[in-house]
Amino acid sequence: MGFMGYIFKILGFESDEQPTKIKKKKTAKASYKFKNGKSLNRAEHIDGIPVYYPENFVASKDYASFLKNKKAFIISVQYCDKDDAEKIVDYFQGLAYGLNAKFIVLEEDKLYLILPEGMEVEE
Question: What pTM, to 2 d.p., does this model score?
Answer without folding.
Answer: 0.63
